[in-house]
Amino acid sequence: MPGTTRATGSALPIALAGLLAAMALSCGGSGGGGGGFSGGIGGSGISQGAISGFGSVFVTGVEWVTSATTTVVVDDQVATESDLQLGMVVLVQGTRTGTASADRVEFDEDVEGPIESIVDVGNDGDVKQLQVLGTTVLAERGSAVYDGVSFDTLMVGDVIEVSGFFDPAGVLDASRIERKGTLVLGTTVVEIHGVVSGFAGGTTFTVDGIAITFDPSGVTTDLSDAPGGPLNGQTVEVKGVLSAAAAITATRIEHENTPLPDAEEAEIEGLISNFANVNSFDVNGIPVSGFGAQLVPNDPSLFGDGVRVEVEGELRSGLLTATRIERRGFDQRIEAALASDLDVDPAAGTLVLLGITVTTDSGTLLEDDLDTPDFSLSDLRGGDFLNVRGVENATGGLLATLIERKDSPDDVKLRGTLDAFDGTTGTLTILGVVVQTDGMTRFENADEVSRTPTEFFAEVQTGDVVEAKDLLDGDQSAIDVADAVEIESVAASSGASGPVFAPIAPAPSSAAAAAAGARSDEASFAGLPPAAAPLAGESTGAGAGAAGAAQGGAPEATVGIVEAVQRFFSRMDEVGRRRATRR
User: What per-residue confidence (pLDDT) applies to 92?
Assistant: First the structure.
């Protein structure tokens, strides 16, 4: 590819080339028998992620066309498309021959039960940690869809249904929270998912500290999807009546070890776990091989455990071979009013807020507190107060993952990567916007400790994620002088300057934490070609130098590739073991 070089220092040894060829064949999978791409998955497609729109069903940026033959399943019951809602994490299966046609759309909540406790997280009042039947739920203002309740009105005792993504620590990052009612012991229906423990062949076992009582004969507990009943170490779904604060009388138990089907085109949205580097990690528990995948943004240091991503590629025998890995999240934020009607261009899918160009794509979630039917950018007008979340793109603007129109104005907020600052003039540049502070501005560091202006400017550094706030004062389309400035997270270390496949320092593990924004040019390198194209995480600059000699004169990058190949085959063995266990 013109303008790109690979810094290897010498030609790859023949043995290494053989390993790469074998690896490429393995990426194709052998689950269909006989190698190659046989196995009847041609044209098949799946998407797993949060619903971002309707008029068809939009999931992971794909518009899945539904029809009278599409099967919709909600909580194991046949339903209709009208039962699907924004923010629900669903699995869509269908065909991808030009148009994406949905054969089946399936939703199952991650937990349903009473809120036991609520704790504020962070220093901006925008994140709450909920405890729901042994599950820790992270609820964030603006990043989740709320139904029957708002972020501010969540209360202990509310029975809620939560859908979202689990992080590596088992915390559920909510994409949708729906209030179902108020807790009534002995009546309230709940649902949990977790691992069985403490089962000794009787009528009780434990899931995440919750005592489960069931009928092993299957008369009062439906065991049709749990052949053989519960087994210690097995992941199950339990639905039933909450008989005590930490006890459920089960009406249904279902095993949850069924792997996703093979698909020629798969898009999976979720949080990264088991992160080694951008070439080897899991998303939603699915192993991912990222060799040769395009990174968006093209900065490996922005990926790590707990980061929300959308991964595209082929899914075969439980391994997702990625062609594109895109960071999707809510790191950068703008809350402000549109200055004029002219700041919205529905045809281009863009708008301008605080002077920042906001771009949308098919994965952008649009919400409207005014409940406008089929809400779109064309409904926006000057003066509308918007809450925008997203990630910084290569041009310094924002790729929106969420645009929410509020029903009333609020404080102006700008959160993003700090581009520059000047303690002498009291200015900070965030996402290209110069923010002025003065003697009345309140400063806090990342530990929520108040700082004087001198202390703050001595502590802050470029690359930190900083939020500036201008309190409600009548003009909500600009930040006049910041009333408050807070460091939300410190700059992540890069780690990208070492060997190509050396482990890369991950971004902060919390899904709500922000890492430094990328400004690298994006480039597409699909598949694993010969030495012409760089692998994921490798420098694409024309000035990239040759790696130093290592291990008897072999180039360091070559050694890194060998190690990566070894990790790949180890990964394939791991996938095989997982599938054997599931069977």
Answer: 96
Cβ proximity of 28 and 42 under 8 Å: no
- Third-level CATH fold of 1-41+262-328+521-583: OB fold (Dihydrolipoamide Acetyltransferase, E2P) (2.40.50)
Q: Is the peptide bond before 297 cis (omega within 30 degrees of 0)?
A: yes
CA distance 428 to 467: 10
DSSP assignment of 81-121: GGG--TT-EEEEEEEEESEEEEEEEEE--SEEEEEEEEEEE
Instruction: Please write down the long-range contacts of 501-505, taking CB distance under 8 Å and 24 or more positions apart.
Output: 501/277, 501/279, 501/535, 501/537, 501/560, 501/561, 501/563, 501/564, 502/277, 502/560, 503/276, 503/277, 504/277, 504/278, 504/300, 504/301, 504/303, 504/304, 504/537, 505/301, 505/304
List, by residue range, all CATH 2.40.50.140 domains of the chain: 111-182, 189-255
Backbone angles phi and psi of 58, in degrees to 5: -100, 120
Percent of the chain residues topping a pLDDT of 70: 76
Q: Are 84 and 51 in contact (CB under 8 A)?
A: yes
pLDDT at 399: 86
CATH topology of domain 111-182: OB fold (Dihydrolipoamide Acetyltransferase, E2P) (2.40.50)
Q: What is the pLDDT of residues 359-403, one digit of tens each?
A: 998 778 888 989 898 899 999 999 999 999 888 877 778 888 889
Stretch 240-251: mean pLDDT, rounded?
96
* CA angle in degrees (0–180, nearest 5) for 493-498-499: 140
Q: How far is CA 248 from CA 118, 191, 213, 495, in A?
A: 22, 9, 6, 47
Distance CA 306, CA 193 (A): 20
CATH superfamily entry for domain 332-489? Copper binding periplasmic protein CusF (2.40.50.320)
Residue 171 pLDDT: 94
Interatomic CA distance for residues 433 and 411, integer angstroms: 17
Strands (E), 228-338: 235-244, 247-255, 263-277, 280-283, 286-289, 294-296, 308-316, 319-327, 332-337
CATH placement of domain 189-255: 2.40.50.140
CA 173/CA 284 separation, integer angstroms? 12
Residues of the chain with CATH 2.40.50.320: 1-41+262-328+521-583, 332-489
